[in-house]
Amino acid sequence: MPVLRHVGTPTLMLLLALTALQPGPVFPDPADPDGIEDEEPEEQPEKTLEKPGKQESPEKRKEALSLLKKRILYASSTDRRSAIRDLKRLKKDEQSDFYDDLVLIVKTDRDAAVRESALRFLAEGGVSTSKAKEAYIAGLDDTERNVRLEALKGIRKIELKEAGEKLAKLVSESELNENDSVIHAAIRTLGTLKYESPEFTKRLLDALDNPATEMESRRSILLYAGSIRAISMEEKLLAIVADTDADLVMRSYAANSLGKTAAKDGGKATGESRDRYLKAMQAVLDEIRNIRDSRQRARMNMLKQQAILAMIRMGDDSVKEELRAAAQDDDANTRFRAIRYIGELKLKEYRDLVEFKSKHDESPKVRKEAERVLKEL
């Protein structure tokens, strides 16, 4: 808010009141288990290296690329990072000429910010050369947290299964009692890699039973369980879903993971297990319906949506209309998630609703998501 100078008290109070009436932005929902890996918007290059035009000679192009390489290697820290971002402006075959330089930077450069930029470029581009894979693995041992996070991003992007054992060791040796974004990302990356072993499962279950385990680590473990469709963790997931005193996000993540584990498409649990999961989700919906206070019910929207989504994934279409109602909720984040799930579940009967939301929803975030989903329907 701008600083207000020389404004009398009545006028100041009026201005503050008017400001409070302005609709605020809808922020990304950190509790969305299916959007947890959404990337931040890419930083735009400060300088550009234009793709070759009709008038540019091969000699001029070669000279421009040579200068760019020298900027990456020899310029000041800020300009080196800018030059690395400029690589996005090149054609793929031109970008590949820089991969070895970026790998060398990741492994040996003393400038942490430049190492981070180099690894980010490789990760976001999904570069999967043998040397790039070595860079991702090497990045896990970097002294800087942000470099390690970029390494994990690259491992997820190309699903580098060779990193599984190293990541499992990293997580297993952690006390899991501190809010460590690298550990959280490592657990979720292991889910993407579908890494599973009896020893690792036991370590995670023990962590969930340990009161000292930090909350975000607990949540990451639940996301991991859904990613690998962990039947071995079903009893713990069912207990968390049913625990009315548990953290709401934890209950929501557990419901999401159970739905994935017994999904008709790609799930591992079938028969009696799926029936148990469905009963657990129905119990959650009954619990929420029985809450008399409307504000308290609204607070449970996240859990309600995850229970509905889980049931539809498991083949129960009786709750589809609940998802439609969520897409018309007053809360923008609730509408956003409902639209996303309509797209994921390919509910073509709601195409008209999604089309309306893409053009007329009050929230820019919801409109954008509806536009994306519309293409899938």
Estimated helix fraction: 55-70%
CATH topology of the largest domain: Leucine-rich Repeat Variant
Class from secondary-structure proportions: mainly alpha
The CATH class assignment of the largest domain is Mainly Alpha
Q: Using DSSP, what is the number of strands?
A: 0
Task: Average the pLDDT over all residues and give the rounded result.
Answer: 87
C-alpha-based Rg, rounded: 24 Å
Overall domain count: 4
How much β-strand is present in the residues? Answer: under 5%
Please give the count of helices: 21
Q: Which sequence of SSEs, written as H and E, runs from N to C?
A: HHHHHHHHHHHHHHHHHHHHH
Sequence stretches where pLDDT stays below 50 over 5 or more residues: 1-30, 36-48
Question: What's the quick description here?
Answer:
With 377 residues, the protein is mostly helical.
Write structural notes for this entry.
The structure is a single chain. This protein folds into four domains: 63-158, Alpha Horseshoe (Leucine-rich Repeat Variant); 159-228, no CATH class; 231-326, no CATH class; 338-377, no CATH class. The protein contains 21 helices and no strands. The chain has helices at residues 9-21, 58-74, 77-86, 92-95, 99-108, 112-124, 130-139, 145-158, 164-172, 181-192, 198-209, 215-227, 234-242, 248-261, 271-289, 294-299, 301-313, 320-326, 332-344, 351-360, 364-376. Helix 2 crosses helix 3 (77-86), helix 3 (77-86) packs parallel to helix 6 (112-124) and helix 5 packs parallel to helix 7. Pfam families: HEAT_2.
